[in-house]
Amino acid sequence: MSEEVETSAKVRKGPGLTARFVLAFCGLFLVFGSGVVFTVWESDQRAAEARARLLLDDRALTLAEQMDEALAASDGASAQTAANGLGRRHGMVAVRLVARDGSLLADGEDPDARRIMDRLATGGERFVMEKGLAATTVSSASGRVFVTATSRSLRQGFHGSAALIASVFFGFGALAALIAWFMARSIAQPLRKLTAMADMLRDKNAAQPLDLKTGDELETLARAFNAMAEKVQANMRRLQRMAYSDTATGLPNHERFTRDVTDFLSNRHDEVGALFVVRLDRLDRIFDAIGQDAGDELLTRIVGRLSSAVRAIDRMVRTEHCTARPSQLARLRGGDFGVLTPRFRGQEDAARFAQLLASALNQPFDWREHKLVLGAAIGAALLPQDGADADTAIRHAMLALTAARSDNGRMKFFTKALDREANAQLAFEREMRAALERNEFKAFFQPKVDLLSGRVIGAEALARWVKPDRTMVSPGRFIPAAEENGLIGSISEVILRDACWKAASWAREGFPLSVAINISPLQFADERFTDKILRSMAEAGLSPDRVELEITESVALENPERALRLLEPLREVGVKVSLDDFGCGHSSLASLTRLPFDIIKIDQQFVRALAKDRHAPAIIEMILAMAASLDYTVVAEGIETEQEADFLRRRGCQIGQGFLWGAAMPATEFLQFNAARSGAISGGQRGVA
What we know:
The protein is an alpha/beta fold. It folds into four domains: 15-204, no CATH class; 208-244; 270-426, 2-Layer Sandwich (Alpha-Beta Plaits), CATH 3.30.70; 439-688, EAL domain (TIM Barrel, Alpha-Beta Barrel), CATH 3.20.20.450. It is 57% helix and 17% strand. The protein contains 23 helices and 21 strands. The strands form four sheets. It has an eight-stranded mixed barrel, surrounded by five helices. A five-stranded mixed beta sheet has the order 2-1-3-5-4, with helices on one face. It starts with a helix and ends with a helix. 30% of the residues are buried.
């Protein structure tokens, strides 16, 4: 429990507002009442004492005179009777005769009057009134009798008046406390309702409107609470829509789709369901081409088409259940949509559902006088066998989708083999990252040869993965994986730096050869691309005119203006730019003339097709003629036979590259290869001379 909740609980455990109000009232009443009672008591005490003092003085003086007369007449019985009679009257205490030494001579009940008189005559004793509250002491006129008298009448009178005052006062106090309790309750009950409403809003984000008709500030406060609660609930509904709905389409989003899958898995009752992930491959490219406003309109059309297709196929395949439990459509992200179908008779029905959906989405449709084909691929997972929880089921469907796109298929179901392959790819990615940290990626060099002279004029730097045990990982394995997981950029930068250092060392050893370096799409997408190239050459001490950057036409022509901005500063310092894999992409000749290229590389598929495809020679001749007219140097790669090299040489191709001269090799072997070939060519020329 949090500190706030604990504090709230402690407050609720204490006395309520009504009890606190009544207790406070009673406390104030008691303090005030005690002061009043004490004041009345003190006033009565003083008045009673004054009256008792006067009365006692008079009565004691009377007693003293009577005793004095009895003493003069030696009449002890009269003295005794006078003392006793005075004690019985007016609330006086019975008179007692006490000797000077403190011994009791006689009291009102002693019959031996003679003995009293004897003592009075000889001892000069005095009468003392010892009990009571008010007291006085007098002597007779002759001075022979000394009397002390006290009275209880004052105490009895005060007790009576104090009890009456207290009874009346506390009676009114009890009545006032009851009235205070009702008043406090009339205030506390609306406040308790307001507190309960606030607790409901806090705990459940919802509360019933509060109806208070008190006609005072509490009613105003209740109306304010109702308005606040209505606004809070409206905001919560809006937040829930934002949290669980796709803002662009209004469809459930990934989070809501995950909850729906979880609900199905928790309450499926032995039913077999299916989860489909549909990817519209061309959606992003179409949006980039038509702009934001048109893209929103198109997306609405696409969602409508997808929803209609799902409903129609639902009625065709799931005739018995399509109405009561229809398939649920959601937008997961970008061009990915999810379909949850809660009940199938078996995998055959699920496969039919997916195939019909893929066929429907691959049909062209009209939009603004254009015919568009979305190109959908579908990955499917059966529930619950392909996922006991929603995250696992969605991940497995995504794996199936990836497999469907890799195989150029339209639909694929998840299998355990796909899961094993995905885990193997993750392990391979971890291994690649570790290899980068251990600097296991090296630049190997494939010779580039002048087709006329046969001399090695340079090399293309290619990435190779050399493990510590000297075994090598095939580039056909790690390069596609690196492109998929984003490591290709880091590997390309390693190869760039390694190639620059190696080429600089060749120049220092007397072999000023050029080096061609492949630029990955991730490298070229970096706005610091130009600075990184310049810094790598400067750190290695390599002359820029010895560097050639190979960029594929698909990357260069994606944004010609940006390519010009990044490449022109490099060309100004002497770096050459090569258009790699020419003829394999979607080249725009108009864009080609604007871009700063120096070299065109004929893709190896055209070279290898020379002996198989009758159109290949014509295509190569066309490329060579165009390059000559635009003053481009042409490099043909993939040359494996002398016949291919001779064909290209006779057609005007300047540079060749391929297994005819050698595969990619480490820097030291390449340098040895170059020295050996240079020596052989020089020797042959001398022999001819």
